[in-house]
Amino acid sequence: DSESLALEKFWLQTKQSRIMLAGTMKDFNNLNTDLQVTINQLAAADLVRFAPNWPAGIDVRGAASARGTGNALDTKFRLALAGADISGTLRADVLSVAKPYDGELVIRGLEVAKLLPVKNFSGVAGADIKFSGAGTNLDSIKGAGTASLRSAVANGINVGDVTLQGTFSPKVADFTGALQGPVGEASWRSHL
Question: Are residues 92 and 99 in contact, defined by beta-carbon separation less than 8 angstroms?
Answer without folding.
Answer: yes
